C-alpha cells in the first residue's frame, strides 16, 4: 500500500507534512476525499467519504474500487474515467449502490494526480446530494399528481400555479407602462420571450403576467431556477428520465412534459450548463424532448420564457450563454428598468405596499414621512422593488398604528444606507456647482477625465468595492468599468 508520506512530497522529494498530520487534515474536511492509484486501488479515504458512502475505511482502503463499490463500472466511475483519460470532471453526478445495498448520490470533482514516485493516480472530492435528489424527485412527483388529479376533475387545469397578473406590476413611469402594454400584446402569440433585468425588478411577475394574459392561461405555469441545482439533477428534472438511465432511475416526465400546453419559465438561463443549453436549443427548434436515457422523442407544446440578470453582451463575453440559444429565446425581449431609473414610482410603490400591509395586518398606517421619501428618492436601490418592499415592511413592523413611517424608526443599518447615499448625491450636486468657466479650463478632456475618476471612485466606495454594483450605479457594463479602471489605473 502507498503510504501517505509518499503522497505529500515536493518534486525534489522533500516531505511537506508527515502522514499523521496529513491524515488529521483530510479527516477534518466537510467533503469526501478519495484517491486511487493507477491500478484503481484506494490509497486515501477520509472520514467524510466513509460517512457519505456508508462504509468503514477498512472496507475501502487498499482495495480495488470495484471491490468496494460493486455497482460501479468503468463507464460510471468518475475516478476510473480520470485514470484512463487524465481529464478533470467538475460537478459530475454519480449514483451508486454500496456494499450494504444503500443507494448514494454524490456530486464529484475528479482530477488526475501524479504521486511522488511518478506513478499516476486520481483524486475525487465528493458532496452528498442524496437528500437533494430525493427532494427534487418528490417535488416532481407531487407536480405530476397535482396535474393528473386536476385533469381527472376537469378538462382544463384552472389552478395554473401563478400568483400575479400585469395588474400587480405597479408604476406610472411612461417607459414602464409601455413595457406592460407591449407584454400584453406579446402574450397573444407563442413566441419565446426573454426578460432582462436586475435582481428585484419583477422579472417573474412579468413572466406570470404574460402567461395569464395569454391563451395558455388555463394551462400550467412552471418556473425553474437554472442556478439552483447541479447539472445532472437539473437535466433529469427538466427533461425527465427513463428507467435504467442511471442507478435507481425511474421513468418520470420532466418539467417540459409537465408544462404541456402551458408555459415554462427558465430563471437565470445564463447559469444553465453549456451542454444543457444545446439540448434546450433542440427542444425549442423541434418541439420535442428526449428523456435522460430515453430513445424516443416526445412532442411538447409549451411556451418558453427566460430571464437573465445580466446583459446578453456580458453573458457572451463571459461565455455563459450560447449565441444560437440567445436568438431562439429572445424572439421577443423586454428589459425591465431598475428602480433608480423610475424614481417617480417610489411614492406610488410605497403607497401600494403600505395599503397591502394595512390590509394584511389589520392596521392603519398613514404612509411615509416627507423626510424618508426624499431619502428614498436619492437612494440607489441595488435590490430594486424587492428591496423597497422589504424596507416598507420593516418600517411597518416598527411603526405605531395610526402614524407614518419615518427615517428615525428604521434600523440603524437602513438609516446608514439611506444617509450615505444622500450624502453622495449632495457631493454630486456640489461638483456641478464647482464646474469652472471655459476661461479657467486648461484642457476639457483632462477636466472630464478628472470628474470621471472621482465618480468611479465614489461609486466603488458606495458599492464596497464591488465592481458589478459600482457599474450598475454608474449605468455602465461591467466590462466598460473594468476598462476604465485599467485606463485610469484605479486600484480596487
UniProtKB/TrEMBL annotation:
Key word Oxidoreductase present: no
The organism's place on the tree of life at top rank: Bacteria
Span of domain PAS: 18-66
Keyword Transcription regulation: yes
Record-level GO BP terms: regulation of DNA-templated transcription
Keywords tagged on the record: ATP-binding, DNA-binding, Nucleotide-binding, Transcription, Transcription regulation
A GO term for molecular function: sequence-specific DNA binding
Domain Sigma-54 factor interaction per the UniProt entry, residue ranges: 169-393
UniProt name for this protein: Sigma 54-interacting transcriptional regulator
Taxon lineage: Bacteria, Bacillati, Bacillota, Clostridia, Halanaerobiales
Amino acid at each position: 500500500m502507498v503510504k501517505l508520506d509518499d503522497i505529500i512530497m515536493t518534486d525534489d522529494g522533500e516531505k511537506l507534512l508527515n502522514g499523521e498530520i496529513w491524515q488529521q487534515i483530510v479527516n477534518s474536511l466537510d467533503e469526501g476525499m478519495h484517491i486511487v492509484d493507477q491500478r484503481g486501488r484506494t490509497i486515501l479515504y477520509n472520514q467524510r467519504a466513509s460517512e457519505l458512502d456508508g462504509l468503514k475505511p477498512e472496507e475501502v482502503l487498499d482495495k480495488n474500487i470495484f471491490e468496494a463499490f460493486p455497482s460501479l463500472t468503468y463507464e460510471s466511475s468518475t475516478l476510473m474515467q480520470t485514470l484512463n483519460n487524465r481529464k478533470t470532471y467538475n460537478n459530475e453526478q454519480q449514483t451508486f449502490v454500496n456494499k450494504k445495498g444503500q443507494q448514494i448520490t454524490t456530486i464529484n470533482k475528479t482530477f488526475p494526480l501524479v504521486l511522488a514516485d511518478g506513478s499516476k493516480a486520481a483524486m475525487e472530492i465528493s458532496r452528498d446530494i442524496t437528500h437533494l435528489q430525493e427532494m427534487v424527485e418528490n417535488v416532481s412527483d407531487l407536480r405530476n399528481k397535482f396535474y393528473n388529479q386536476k385533469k381527472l376533475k376537469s378538462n382544463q387545469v384552472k389552478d395554473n400555479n401563478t400568483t400575479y397578473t400585469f395588474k400587480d406590476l405597479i408604476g406610472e413611469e411612461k417607459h414602464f407602462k409601455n413595457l406592460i402594454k407591449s407584454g400584453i400584446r406579446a402574450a397573444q402569440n407563442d413566441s419565446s420571450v426573454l426578460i432582462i433585468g436586475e435582481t428585484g425588478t419583477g422579472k417573474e411577475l412579468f413572466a406570470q403576467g404574460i402567461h395569464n394574459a395569454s391563451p395558455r392561461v388555463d394551462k400550467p405555469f412552471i418556473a425553474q431556477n437554472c442556478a439552483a441545482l447541479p447539472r445532472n439533477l437539473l437535466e433529469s428534472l427538466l427533461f425527465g428520465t427513463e428507467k435504467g438511465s442511471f442507478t435507481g432511475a425511474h421513468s418520470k416526465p420532466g418539467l417540459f412534459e409537465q408544462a404541456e400546453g402551458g408555459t415554462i419559465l427558465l430563471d437565470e438561463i445564463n447559469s444553465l450548463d453549456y451542454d444543457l443549453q444545446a439540448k434546450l436549443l433542440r427542444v425549442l427548434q423541434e418541439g420535442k424532448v428526449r428523456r435522460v436515457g430515453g430513445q424516443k422523442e416526445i412532442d411538447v407544446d409549451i411556451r418558453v420564457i427566460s430571464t437573465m440578470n445580466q446583459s446578453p453582451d456580458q453573458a457572451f463575453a463571459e461565455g455563459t450563454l450560447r449565441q444560437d440559444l440567445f436568438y431562439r429565446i429572445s424572439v421577443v425581449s423586454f428589459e425591465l428598468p431598475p428602480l433608480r431609473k423610475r424614481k417617480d414610482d417610489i411614492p406610488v410603490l410605497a403607497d401600494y405596499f403600505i395599503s397591502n400591509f394595512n390590509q394584511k395586518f389589520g392596521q392603519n398606517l398613514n404612509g411615509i414621512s416627507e423626510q424618508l421619501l426624499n431619502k428614498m428618492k436619492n437612494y440607489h436601490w441595488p435590490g430594486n422593488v424587492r428591496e423597497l418592499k422589504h424596507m416598507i415592511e420593516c418600517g411597518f413592523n416598527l411603526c405605531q398604528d395610526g402614524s407614518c413611517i419615518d427615517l428615525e424608526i428604521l434600523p440603524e443599518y437602513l438609516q446608514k444606507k439611506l444617509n450615505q447615499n444622500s450624502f453622495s448625491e449632495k457631493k454630486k450636486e456640489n461638483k456641478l456647482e464647482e464646474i469652472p468657466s471655459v476661461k479657467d479650463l486648461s484642457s476639457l478632456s483632462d477636466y472630464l477625465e478628472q470628474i470621471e475618476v472621482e465618480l468611479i471612485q465614489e461609486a466603488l466606495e458606495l458599492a464596497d468595492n464591488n465592481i458589478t454594483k459600482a457599474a450598475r450605479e454608474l449605468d455602465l457594463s461591467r466590462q466598460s468599468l473594468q476598462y476604465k479602471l485599467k485606463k485610469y489605473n484605479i486600484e480596487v
